[in-house]
Write a structure and sequence with these properties.
Radius of gyration: 21 Å
CATH architecture of the largest domain: 3-Layer(aba) Sandwich
Bound molecules: pyridoxal-5'-phosphate
Number of strands: 12
Helix content: 25-40%
CATH superfamily of the largest domain: Type I PLP-dependent aspartate aminotransferase-like (Major domain)
Distance between the termini: 31 Å
Length: 378
């Protein structure tokens, strides 16, 4: 019998939790449209509003400030394309000049190709002085900074960034996609004007996410997806009720995750990497990082080939952002950190989840060890 596969690519997407699958199928059994006024419609609406509360609780927000989207990419595009509203004290011009940290996800730069790029240091941490200077020079802006990086797991100083952005009269959008289920998230403590989240990164279904605003005044300038007025006009079209139900089940489960247990496993894995080679490079090692992520390069090993050889050995890892997988090349994140030459053949990302076992990490270290031995012989 072949060994079970080791899935170590949780930052790309996660296995859907059994509780989320059950919630999805229960919601699929409901007939009503949440906008209908009859009993069937009201039952669907009640499920949706209960789910909204669970999702709000995940990031310590108020339910009325949660708006469902088809995922993070849609939320990011909605906000960066249209800007935030006038009622939050910002005029459209102030939120159509976009600044974004150099290590943002590709969705940010695809939605705002003209964005000014805020540099990061060699650990991947946002250069706050550069942000302050860019705001002083160009005036208020809509600033996009991720809470945690999808490749390195590096956590950004969001509260400090928020203070600078607000002092300059701008707004802060935080891509918090990688955070739930890996660290606590509190929109108020972060100081973000809007958070972007997506269910499939923490055990929910793919294709459902949310824009979560900090208060009742901050909203989209106008809806990006326009139709029947749903979601109080912010995101129109009949809601994905089954996805929303699965999202809420995952949000409830995220509160139970033992972050420290993941950190112990990840740190043990990195100790194993150092035993394989003292030349290993681990990106962002000196920075605050998510407890589940390791982005590394082993001397002589080409990241793209490691992904394929590991896959053949039953271990799923990635060579960076899954959204750009298939495109093998230097990691933009490492390049932005000025660390490109520490990983000339690319870097490999191992990302764990709450159900990752020591056995899976051992399987990963074994395949890497065999790959190193083969490479040294060649
Ligand atoms: N932002 C980050 C940091 C991500 O890791 C991802 C997914 O890889 C996205 C945004 C896009 O999320 P979605 O797949 O929900 O569109």
């Amino acid at each position: 019998m072949s060994a079970p596969r080791a899935y170590l690519d949780w930052n790309a997407t996660t296995p859907v939790l059994p509780a989320a699958i059950a919630a999805v199928s229960e919601a699929l059994a409901l007939t009503g449209n949440p906008s209908s006024i009859h009993a069937e419609g009201r039952a669907a609406r009640a499920l949706m509003e209960a789910a909204r509360k669970d999702i709000a609780r995940l990031v310590q927000a108020s339910p009325e400030n949660v708006f469902f989207t088809s995922g993070a990419t849609e939320g990011i595009n909605s906000i960066l394309t249209l800007g935030l509203c006038a009622t939050c004290g910002l005029d459209r011009a102030q939120t159509t000049r976009v600044l974004a940290s150099a290590t943002e996800h590709s969705a940010i730069f695809a939605a705002a190709p003209e964005a000014g790029v805020i540099p990061v240091d060699s650990n991947g941490i946002l250069d706050l002085a550069a942000l302050e200077a860019m705001l002083a020079e160009g005036g208020p802006a809509l600033v996009a900074v991720q809470l945690a990086n999808n490749e390195t797991g590096v956590i950004q100083p969001i509260a400090e960034a928020a203070r600078l952005v607000h002092a300059a009269g701008g707004a802060l959008m935080v891509d918090a996609v990688q955070a739930p289920g890996k660290m606590a998230v509190d929109i108020g403590a972060l100081g973000a004007d809007v958070l972007i989240i997506t269910a499939h990164k923490f055990g929910g279904p793919k294709g459902i996410g949310a824009m979560v605003f900090a208060n009742g005044e901050t909203r989209l300038e106008r809806a990006f997806i326009r139709g029947g007025g749903q979601e109080r006009g912010q995101r129109q079209g009949t809601e994905n009720l089954s996805g929303i139900a699965g999202f809420a089940a995952a949000a409830r489960a995220a509160a139970e995750v033992d972050f420290e247990a993941m950190r112990i496993l990840r740190n043990g894995f990195e100790a194993g990497l150092r035993q394989l080679s003292n030349g290993v490079f681990i990106a962002g090692e000196a920075a605050p990082r998510l407890p589940n992520t390791s982005f590394f390069a082993l001397p002589g090993l080409e990241a793209g080939k490691v992904v394929i050889a590991s896959d053949l050995d039953g271990v799923a890892v990635s060579s960076g952002s899954a959204c750009s997988s298939g495109k093998v090349g230097a990691s933009k994140v490492l390049t932005a950190m000025g660390q490109g030459e520490r990983a000339p053949k690319g870097a490999v990302r191992v990302s764990l989840g709450p159900r990752t076992t020591q056995g899976e990490l051992d399987a990963c270290l074994s395949t890497l060890s065999r790959q190193l031995a083969r490479n040294n012989k060649a």
